[in-house]
Amino acid sequence: MIRMDGMGSMGSMDGMGSMDRLDRAFDWDAFLEPVWLSVKISFTASLLVMVLGIWTAHRIGGRRFFGKTLLETALLLPLVLPPTVVGFLLLVLLGRRSWIGRLWEWWFDRPVIFTWHAAVIAAVVVAFPLVYQTLKAGFASVPCEVKDAARLDGAGEWQLLFGILLPLSARSLAAAYVLGFARALGEFGATLMVAGNIPGRTRTIPTAIYAAVETNQWQLAGLWSAALACIAFALLLATRPRR
Question: Would you kindly state where each structural domain of the chain is located, as residue ranges?
């Protein structure tokens, strides 16, 4: 009995030692760094794109004017253009040779390219079409009689937006935010073009997966892929109607 207990103790110690060696072999900081950065970029981008989407859907979506079709087509282009093309156009617009890039560098004393701010801008651009279309459909679902009655009672455009349209389009708002966040979270091509893949600075989950596969780090690539899938699944599940 004493011998068996000793063998059991030795077995448990060996198991604990194996776990310790596994923890030491796996760099959790290197794994979590792109995750936190991706969440930070996606959260910031989703807030910005919601503000832009709400304003644009309210000011443009429900109105008729000359050139509206051309304007909306231009706004929806990132939905169908390859991400590398979007990234190249952003590189031209935000580079040091552009007035936007020079203005940013003068104001912040650093270029915007190859920073996490550039990743936020890329995420906003590629997520905007999804957010705009969802919000436009949500605002259009509000009956015209309700909007006309509010205007007859003296409501201004901002009062109409915050008092009528947003409360009655709550489900569309939630869906638009989730779509924007998820699209920003999974952005790869445009982000790689304007922000690069700098560890600790601009490396997001998608670019980290790309780098891990290139360097034959399949375990890290699999864990990052699982993390991305779990976050996206949780976001979509949160917006599903309860039955």
Answer: 29-239
